[in-house]
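Morning!

This is the sequence you dropped in the shared folder:
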Amino acid sequence: MYQAVKGTQDILPADRAYWRYVTEQMHAVSALFGLQQIDTPIFEETSLFVRGVGEGTDIVDKEMYSFQDKGGDDLTLRPEFTAGVMRAFIEHGMHVLPRPVKLYSIGPIFRHEAPQAGRYRQFHQFNVEMLGEMDPAVDLDVMSVAWMLLTRLGYRGLNFQLNSTGCRKCRPGYRAALVDYFKAYEDRLGDVDRRRLAINPLRLLDSKEPAVQPLLDAAPHSADHLCDECATHLAGLRGYLAALGMPYTINFRLVRGLDYYTKTVFEVWAEGIGSQSAVCGGGRYDGLVEELGGPPTPGIGFAMGIERVIASLKQQGITPPALAEPRVQVSPLGEAARLPAIRLVNDLRAAEIGALLAFGGRSLKSQLKSADKAGVAYTVILGDTELANGVAVVRDMASSQQETVAADGIVDWLRARVIRNT
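The structure's back. Tokens below.
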């Protein structure tokens, strides 16, 4: 028997209320901040991600779904949104738009990771980008999108984890300090971390190896190696966060998993959602547009996994509003009533009243059972007697009381009661 491919999942109707709730809030909050939606293809040239995300990252080295198409082109299913959005920004000349250019995306992401609770090989992200301004107030604006969204969704105990990874001017000095420090302990590093030391030393700060943890506690801090520009930028952002009462913690080990980050990096942590307390994360990428062939353009953004958000909402006992469902069932009794019943269902839907038609010529008792299971509020019964007298019998499913209503006024009669009880 066929099953979903390992690391993927079916999103069943029972979970759709969560998905609708979360994504509608994402659209609503984006509108409040002036973000505009952009959709990019789910696959791009492989070199875009290698160049944009960076060699030596887990994503490029281990997790990308790459393939060669029938024309011989090397393509990759997107493992993150930002590189593709930057490609679109450059390709379509969006640098001429008023700045900052504010964009968001919602859609599937693909990474060949080890499947575990809340982590899939195909998953979905909410992605935010603001391009064209170096002002730390833009950092605050991006972080505020995440804060407002999570607050509206019902999260408790939110706080930011914050760090600065420096820029092209000051990062080489910090990188050298890390290399000097870890070289003295190279014999205690595993193969993966030794490779990180050689290719991308900042990734060592994200190592999960138990033997490396004591070394990380004493490792040099990026904050001690910032140039004046980066230090001033971080101080400005901290002042804004404090002014708005948004709690934050300087986390010296926070570097995020992508090479393109500069200056600000952050995560949002929440209480009561298990051991993986980070709900989303992001940071600045001031050199990425230029690296991909565009004009010098500062930028900042974040990504939020939708499956992760939904799982944590369930952990916190947050129930989304129920999806709208049909409120009426029309039950024809006998073949003569079938066409009038079909017409009535069509008229009800045209009047924005969700309606079901009872199929199959079953008994009234069976049709009422179906109506009860469907959760409708009213069942309209049409039989030979009703047709002859130009009426319909309407059964209130909650009280089991029935009322006879003129057929030519049934739609208005139902509309008044459905709207009143919605």
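Headline: The CA atoms of residues 53 and 126 lie 18 Å apart.

More detail when I'm at my desk.
O.
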